[in-house]
Every structure is written in structure tokens, then in C-alpha cells.
Write a structure and sequence with these properties.
alpha+beta, two-stranded antiparallel ribbon, 5 helices
Length: about 140
């Protein structure tokens, strides 16, 4: 990306691992042509999950119908497949890097005006992809 001007934009996906939409995940797996055995593996991995909260007074358990289980070997792979539509935005003036639920966009332009235009276009495209995935940005961060 040879450019005179560069912008580095850091984005944090709000509650990313907790809000991963399972129907969207399975549409994504289907669109990439994953074989049935892999989709079934993921389905049964996610099926019948529960969230537990325990303190000195009570214990609560609720069924879980979204999210990406953390602290497992397969979770990063599931998450990377889920957000891949963002990572493959193909523009010569863009480099994207993901770090778990954080995205870093390195955007280039020959002039300051071109950089501004490129940044606006790329942020709009990223926003559209996040919306398709039913994810939101954490504006506070």
C-alpha cells in the first residue's frame, strides 16, 4: 500500500463474543461451502449451551442461543469464520488486521483529501458488514 498519507483506525466490536448470531454463522458456513460434517460439528458444539451465574445467595442458569464460547480451542476459528466478510474487504488502499474482537484498519491515500474519502468509504463498508453480522461497535472505546 504505497501511499503518501495513512490513517490507522482502531475498532472494538461491542460484546463481540457474546453477540455472535448463530443463524448468521450457519449462513456464513453455508456460503463458504463448508461440508455438512463440519456444520454439524459446530451445531452440536453450540446446541444446548447454558449460561450460569452463581453467588453466595443464588444460582441462575439460562439457555444460551447466541455467542461464541470462549476459552476453547475452536472458538477463535469460529470467530474468524464469522467475521471473515470484514477481513476480506478487498481494496488496494486498505489493510485489515483482527485481534480477537478488535479490528485495525490501515487506510492509505495519495492526498489528504483522497485519504479522507477512502476512510469514509471503508468505514461505511465495514459498518455494512458489521450490520450484516448483527454486530455493533463499542463507541466508548
Amino acid at each position: 500500500m504505497p501511499s503518501e498519507h495513512l490513517a490507522l483506525v482502531s475498532l472494538d466490536i461491542k460484546s463481540a463474543f457474546d453477540t455472535m448470531n448463530w443463524p448468521v454463522l450457519f449462513k456464513t458456513l453455508e456460503s463458504y461451502g463448508f461440508p455438512a460434517f463440519f456444520k454439524n460439528f459446530i451445531y452440536f458444539y453450540l446446541k444446548n449451551r447454558r449460561v450460569f451465574y452463581t453467588n453466595d445467595v443464588l444460582e441462575i442458569s439460562r439457555p444460551c442461543s447466541k455467542g461464541c464460547p470462549q476459552c476453547s480451542v475452536i472458538a477463535p476459528t469460529i470467530w474468524n469464520i464469522y467475521i471473515n466478510s470484514i477481513l476480506i474487504i478487498d481494496r488496494p488502499d486498505l489493510h485489515i488486521q483482527a485481534f480477537a474482537d478488535d479490528l485495525v484498519l490501515l487506510i492509505g491515500g495519495r492526498t489528504a483529501r483522497e485519504l479522507e474519502n477512502n476512510t469514509n468509504l471503508i468505514l461505511a463498508a465495514t459498518s455494512d458488514k458489521l450490520e450484516d453480522l448483527e454486530l455493533k461497535l463499542s463507541i466508548e472505546k
